Amino acid sequence: MKFWKMNGAGNDFIILNNIEEALPRSAFPQIAKTLCTPHRSLGADGFMVVDKAREGADFQMLFFNSDGSVGEMCGNGARCICRYGYETGLAGEHQVVETTAGIVTGDRISRRQYRVRLNDPTTVRLQEVLTVGDKAYPCAYVELGDPGLPHAVVPYPGLAQADPQALFQLGRALRHHPHFPKGANVNFYEITGPDQVLEKTYERGVEDFTLACGTGTGSVVTVLTLLGQVSGQGVQVTMAGGTLTIDVERTGETVTGLWLTGPTNLVAKGEIFDEELSEVF
User: Fold this and answer.
1) What is the DSSP letter of 24?
2) Closest CA to 28 of 19, 39, 16
């Protein structure tokens, strides 16, 4: 199997072109779980498959988390796969990508910078309170696309100085909180200046913090825009892997457009020989 490995602000992915490979879809969860395991294989946050589109898009993007579970969509992954589509000739400088959560469009800004229109928010609840142990945590809840990609948006004063282990435990508890029937990605944030936000995301399916989360940044800025705490235009969100830019279009209290801009990095191209996959085929 031929592959590309890419990352978007440190959020890393293995990409496989199934238009060429013609592998059975039933094999993808195990392939994802095997290849994304660090030390034993390539290691990555997620596994993305390019396949033929069914709805008039340039191509289809199938996304799998590192534990083999299906992900509805991935913002940084979409930026990377748009670059893949452009550089392999599947699409031009404007890309239309079919995802499980709906159509995503992308635009090439430069060789490494890509901008994607994320799935629109389909659920937004701005005032939630979750209890973990004996402590209550205010938060908001956002789903992007349909079926919705779930995100909890949690303010966390002093986020830069937060104890990593305590934050991990809280992230894991909120990710599995019974209030979220299908679990949630947990986005801790702190406003650090005008249209400046610090964010750390505990990702469902990775079950750990990742260096960046594109849909997480979009969800955080959606909430802060509707609350009037950021402008919604050119909002800079800093994560461990770098800075992403979010732009929000709204009509009244409804978000009608959500754009994510940031860097892509092509790490490697090659062929997979992982012998652990011999039983999959």
Assistant:
1) -
2) 16
Return the biggest CA–CA distance within the chain: 55
Q: Give the type of residue at 140.
A: A
What is the model's pLDDT at position 109?
A: 98
pTM, two decimal places: 0.96
Residue 200 near residue 209 (C-beta atoms within 8 A): yes
How far is the CA of 175 from the CAs of 72, 112, 186, 201, 232, in angstroms? 16, 32, 6, 10, 26
Catalytic residues: 74, 213
C-alpha of 72 from chain center: 9
* Cα–Cα distance for residue pair 49/57, rounded to 1 Å: 15
198 within 8 A of 192, measured Cβ to Cβ: yes
Cis-peptide into 147, omega within 30 deg? yes
pLDDT (tens digit per residue) in 224-266: 999 999 999 999 999 999 999 999 999 999 999 999 999 999 9
- Number of CB atoms found within 10 A of residue 209's CB: 18
- The burial class, CB within 10 Å (0-12 / 13-18 / 19+), for 119 is buried
| Residue 188: its H or E element | strand 185-193
Q: What b-and-e string marks burial along 123-155, b requiring 16 or more CB atoms within 10 Å of the CB?
A: ebeeeeebeeeeeebebbbbbbbeebbbbbbbb
Cα–Cα distance between 249 and 238 in angstroms, integer?
21
> How do residues 142-164 score in pLDDT, each as one tens digit?
999 999 999 999 999 999 999 99
Residue 200, H or E segment: strand 196-203
Amino acid symbol at 87: E
Q: Which residues have a Cβ under 8 Å from the Cβ of 210 and sit 6 or more positions away?
A: 10, 11, 45, 201, 203, 241
In whole angstroms, what separates CA 111 from the centre of its chain?
Answer: 21
